[in-house]
């Protein structure tokens, strides 16, 4: 075991963790917006909107994230027409391709998490609001959405952790995130065990933080 | 009951036979994604210069061989962890790699080159046809300056953990934006898509891609050898495995004397890349 290498690679890996965290936070923000929109479509009575939202979540939950990121990065890059459009400004950059893939993926899972949370809200709560003469719009924004978010916290916490681990796939499209830099160090030192132990430790620490923040929020917004 | 007994006995015998057969086999690791050095045909069979050369060398060594596939970026760690006994994967002999593993004498050498898509602003750089970086002469130094100016602020793509990446990281052509990929295929794809302003690899890797894909990939600047580009391609072997190292060195001597290496090289490269 080469402890000196572990110590020397730590600052470089910590630096790369910033890229990982940037990818994660951007994807989670976009993913939450996408997820909320599609969850609302899923509980919509209109069958076309409903089927559309279901199709989206089915496709993105049913295929591996690696395949999605490859299709968006290498696949779309092969379409000559696309390269002449303004879209190419974004798709040319591996960073945006990764964020698009991650956001669409986590958005699909988030929409399912929020949908089931919406559906577990007891009708009595909504009826109580109606009996007080509150408009259905305000019931939705002030009652249903907050309850749904609280209900979905445990499942969503898991999704954040899964997404955090998923960002390691960014290294397959040339990004120098935590995994990418770890692989780079290994390519010059040929010592995968030491470097991956340090990188794994950093991932574990991020998970630890996320886990505790979610636990704290669950307690704070507990119904009891 | 009897069937189960017979079946388990059969399994045991098969296992035993396969273990004993494996004991004396030389396992050779290759990437299978770097034509014409090593690649795969449509059916997934490993082919290429090094695959054919490996069989020839094994015949001279007089042992059975098995060629296994391994991703490029894990090649040296896999050798060290005994997943196979030798590397034949277009791996250049460099001082950096020699810290971790031994190399046989070189069996082939081939120059590296930059490639761009036709119409790139990098076309028409005035440099000599080839430069050697081991002891760069005045012309080579001037060529590096021309390249530094031409590549400033450009994105240059390479396969990860290669001599080509080492060269770009060395700063000999200034600070370029280096992007690394797992395979040469991916480098080629992104060169064609326009995400890379230029790419650096073995010159034959680009001509092979241009020929197969029909894409207008052109080589620019000088061809590179020496220095960060190492001293030819050899068989990578674990440091403690001197017996196998000697066996490969002797086999390469024989294969060279009998003209096998240059014959196989000419077949796959279109020119004699043997050394």
Structure at a glance:
Chain A has 224 residues and is mainly α.
Structure description:
The complex is a heterodimer of chains A (224) and B (275). Chain A contains ten helices and no strands. With 224 residues, chain A is an all-alpha fold. In chain B, helix 2 crosses helix 9 and helix 2 runs antiparallel to helix 10. Classes of the chains: A mainly alpha (224), B alpha/beta (275). At the A-B interface, helix 9 of A face helix 3, strand 10 and helix 7 of B.
Which helices and strands appear, and what pairs or packs with what?
The complex is a heterodimer of chains A (about 220) and B (about 280).
Chain A: H1 3-42, H2 47-62, H3 65-77, H4 80-83, H5 88-91, H6 94-120, H7 123-131, H8 136-166, H9 178-189, H10 192-220
Helix pairs in contact in A: 1-2, 1-6, 1-9, 1-10, 2-6, 3-6, 6-8, 7-8, 8-10, 9-10
Chain B: H1 2-23, E1 26-30, E2 39-40, E3 46-47, H2 49-61, E4 65-69, H3 75-80, E5 86-87, H4 95-98, E6 102-103, E7 112-117, E8 130-132, H5 138-151, E9 155-159, H6 163-169, E10 177-181, H7 184-193, E11 198-202, H8 203-213, E12 217-225, E13 236-237, H9 242-257, H10 260-269
- Main beta-sheet annotation of chain B: 6 strands, mixed
Mean pLDDT of chain A: 94
Enumerate how many helices of chain A there are, as a single number: 10
In percent, how helical is the residue content of chain A? over 70%
Poorly predicted runs of chain B: none
Category by helix and strand content of chain B:
alpha/beta
Q: According to CATH, what is the class of chain A?
A: Mainly Alpha
Question: Main sheet of chain A, how many strands, which sense, barrel?
Answer: none
- Share in β-strands of chain B: 15-25%
H/E topology pattern of chain B:
HEEEHEHEHEEEHEHEHEHEEHH
Estimate the global geometry of chain A from the Cα principal axes. Answer: flat
Helix content range of the residues of chain B, please? 40-55%
Mean pLDDT across the residues of chain B is 91
CATH H-level homologous superfamily name of chain A: MetI-like
Using the 3D structure, state the CATH architecture of chain A: Orthogonal Bundle
Regarding quaternary structure, how should these chains be classified? heterodimer
Q: How many individual helices of chain B?
A: 10
The geometry of chain B reads as globular
Q: Span between N and C termini of chain B?
A: 62 Å
Q: Pair with the most extensive interface? A: A-B, 16 and 24 residues
Report Rg of chain A: 21 Å
């Amino acid at each position: 075991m080469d402890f000196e290498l572990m110590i020397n690679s730590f600052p470089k890996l910590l630096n790369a963790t910033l890229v990982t965290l940037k990818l994660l936070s951007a994807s989670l923000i976009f993913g939450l917006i996408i997820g909320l929109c599609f969850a609302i479509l899923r509980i919509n009575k209109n069958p076309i909107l409903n089927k559309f939202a279901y199709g989206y979540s089915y496709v993105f939950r049913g295929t591996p994230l690696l395949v999605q990121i490859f299709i968006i990065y290498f696949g779309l890059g092969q379409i000559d027409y696309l390269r002449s459009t303004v879209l190419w400004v974004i798709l040319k950059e591996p960073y945006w391709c990764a964020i698009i893939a991650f956001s669409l993926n986590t958005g699909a899972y988030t929409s399912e998490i929020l949908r089931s949370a919406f559906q577990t809200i007891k009708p009595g709560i909504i009826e109580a609001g109606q009996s007080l003469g509150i408009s259905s719009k305000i019931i939705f924004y002030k009652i249903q959405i907050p309850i749904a978010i609280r209900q979905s916290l445990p499942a969503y916490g898991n999704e954040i952790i899964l997404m955090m681990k998923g960002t390691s796939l960014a290294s397959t499209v040339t990004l120098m995130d935590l995994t990418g830099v770890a692989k780079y160090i290994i390519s010059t030192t040929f010592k995968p065990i030491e470097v991956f132990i340090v990188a794994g430790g950093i991932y574990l620490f991020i998970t630890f933080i996320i886990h505790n923040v979610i636990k704290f929020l669950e307690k704070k917004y507990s119904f009891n | 009951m009897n069937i189960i007994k017979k079946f388990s006995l059969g399994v045991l015998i098969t296992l035993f036979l396969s273990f004993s057969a494996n004991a004396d086999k030389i396992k050779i690791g290759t990437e299978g994604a770097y034509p014409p050095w090593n690649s795969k045909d449509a059916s997934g069979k490993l082919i290429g210069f090094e695959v054919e050369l490996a069989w020839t060398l094994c015949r001279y060594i007089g042992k059975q061989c098995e060629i296994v596939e391994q991703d490029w970026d894990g090649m040296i760690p896999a050798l060290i962890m005994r997943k196979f006994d030798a590397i034949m994967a277009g791996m250049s002999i460099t001082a950096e790699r020699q810290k971790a593993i031994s190399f046989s004498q070189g069996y082939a050498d081939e120059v590296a080159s930059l490639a761009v898509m036709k119409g790139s602003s990098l076309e028409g750089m005035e440099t000599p046809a080839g430069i050697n970086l081991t002891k760069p002469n005045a012309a080579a130094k001037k060529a590096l300056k021309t390249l530094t100016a031409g590549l400033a602020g450009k994105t240059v793509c390479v396969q990860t953990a290669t001599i080509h990446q080492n060269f770009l990281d060395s700063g000999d052509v200034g600070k370029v934006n280096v992007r690394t990929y797992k395979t040469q295929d991916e480098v080629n794809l992104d060169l064609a898509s326009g995400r890379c302003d230029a790419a650096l690899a073995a010159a034959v890797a680009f001509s092979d891609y241009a020929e197969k894909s029909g894409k207008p990939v052109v080589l620019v600047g000088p061809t590179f050898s020496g220095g960060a580009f190492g001293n030819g391609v050899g068989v990578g072997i674990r440091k403690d495995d001197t017996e196998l190292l000697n066996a490969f060195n002797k086999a390469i001597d024989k294969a060279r004397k009998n003209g096998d290496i240059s014959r196989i090289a000419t077949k796959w490269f279109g020119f004699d890349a043997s050394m």
